[in-house]
Known about the structure:
single chain, Rossmann fold, 2 domains, five-stranded parallel sheet, 15% strand, globular
Amino acid sequence: MPERGGFPHFMLKEIYEQPRGVRDTVQPRLAPGGDRIVLPGIGLTDDDFRRIRRIKIAASGTSRHAGLAGHYMIEQLARVPVDVDHASEFAYRHPMLGPDELVVAITQSGETADTLAALREAKSRGAKTIAIANVIDSTIAREADGVLYTYAGIEVSIASTKAFTAQLTVLYLLAVYLAQARETVTKDQLKKLVDDVAAIPKKLETVLNVDFLCRELAEKYDRSRDFLFLGRGVHYAAALDGALKLKEVSYIHAEGYPAGEMKHGPNALIDETLPVVILVSRDPGDPESVLRYEKTLSNLREVKARSGKVIALAAEDDREVRESADHVIPIPSAPELLLPILEIVPLQMLAYYIAVRRGLDVDKPRNLAKAVLVE
């Protein structure tokens, strides 16, 4: 049985285990020269991947949020259209599938009932299937054509932390693998993509240093009734999971929303009592990332103009964000597709410390189970 190892709760221990979990997930997938990705157990050939014309991702909860990030990763790198489904809906909407489609089913336990139902529906319609799971030889791993394991280690706390960052990592590796199989990137680009993901564990260790900032923010906002989390593009996936973590462990109502949709409803919620968490991280070397950053910075200023309290995740040297936000949590620089792996850590910590201050059972939130075994 796992021990807490000096931590007051498994959730905090598992947050701190994320650099190791990501490192253990990446290292076995690096080719000896460090210039390619290898995926033993993938179950499909490069020819199969070249024939794929569409990918569907089916998952629930946190795993679905990982899938939303994977959607951006795969489409951008491998140039294959991707749809993301709630697994609980997938099997019942008569999905149009065939041999040129790939269904990726994501589940931490490998036993999630609705995700298993989605996988079985996909197989019955002739689609190729890959499972992403954290449990070796789980049901979904046995039934899928191929499996990609997340080597996050045993996760005890019901609110998933290290399994989520490992899922994000595996989806990035899959996107890179698809790109190299379909030859949508050059050799130099491929080498950089591999180097980028190999550097993430070290950056995660740096992110853990924001622990004290998250404690201070918990002291300020532990009595809030609502939170709004905003992100644009791939950052929206991290915003969604940050909101989910907060509602799971603190029982505070929290909502994740695309930053570009603020004018379509969420603006009505903003007043001096509403904390708004905005993900404003960017990749300075990517013009599209910079453009998204500028638009999100405009959203941040809109919130401040309406008296909202802004907690921003941004680069440490981002002067514009520091001048506009109430609080800034620094995030190390990284390529945009990998930033959610770094951004989610302080959001997990914030949820954890708020729940602790509210005197709640952090590891076992009410009405929730680690594995959802019935639909």
